[in-house]
Design goal:
The protein is built from no helices and 11 strands. It has strands at about 5, 10, 20-25, 35-40, 45-50, 60, 70-75, 80-85, 90-100, 105, 110-115. Strand 4 and strand 5 (about 45-50) form a beta hairpin. The N and C termini lie far apart (about 40 Å).
């Protein structure tokens, strides 16, 4: 059974940094595009970042470009999201997502709160 477990969220001041991790198991990690999404209270879930299966192609939502970096370690079946220069509007539950064709796998999410 596929599992995706996010960690690394928490409370951080504006301008601070956090590194999210998503450890996966139960599926062939190296065959999946990996993504991060987020959902703020009262809003729809939105795309944050994506990385292809081998890690050499990445893309970001305009709102996080230049501040967030996605990466993956296929040897550890893990995808990361380095978040710098955090803003209050980055406050959300962050979800890890794996996608292959029509298959979409989701983690349970980790809360990120940016507040002074």
């Amino acid at each position: 059974q596929a599992q995706l477990v996010e960690s690394g969220g928490g409370l951080v001041q504006p301008g601070g940094s956090l590194r999210l991790s998503c450890v996966t198991s139960g599926f062939v990690f190296g065959g999946y595009i990996m993504n991060w999404y987020r959902q703020a209270p009262g809003k729809e879930r939105e795309f944050v970042a994506t990385v292809n299966s081998v890690g050499n192609r990445k893309d970001y939502a305009d709102s996080v470009k230049g501040r967030f970096t996605i990466s993956r370690d296929n040897g550890k079946n893990t995808v990361y999201l380095q978040m710098n220069m955090l803003k209050p509007e980055d406050t959300a539950v962050y979800y890890c997502n794996g996608r292959r064709g029509t298959i979409a796998l989701w983690g349970q999410g980790t809360q990120v709160t940016v507040s002074s």
